[in-house]
Amino acid sequence: MNVQNQLSSEKAKAIAFKKGQQISLKQQQTGLWQEKFDIDEQLEYYKNKLMINIENRQVEMVDNNLKKLLRLRARQTALNISEIIGEDKEKNTQLLKEETEKFYRDCLLLGITLDKIIGEDNII
After folding, report:
1. Among 34, 37, 59, CA closest to 123
2. How far apart are CA 16 and CA 42, in angstroms?
3. What is the pLDDT of residues 29-70, one digit of tens each?
């Protein structure tokens, strides 16, 4: 690991610690927690960009932000599911169900938001 990656890794650990996130030994060994942390940061960034672009009625950018958010959320779901696999089967089934429901709710929320945006004077 080069110095830059090590610094980035240490910074991510510190921020995760501040947020109260638990980082398992498995996550530390595989680097999975780093990828999940990066996705969380990107999701936050694109959500903020999306809101700004909606306010400014920048249709093309809204479309790009939505696509990026959906891809990131799908990747986050896949990472969470891959982490769940291999754990207790009963717990595994419940967590998988919860993760799927969260993704479904996020997609519904995006759809409802889009419907409201499009409905406003049909500007977007």
Report:
1. 59
2. 14
3. 555 556 666 777 888 888 888 788 878 877 777 777 777 877
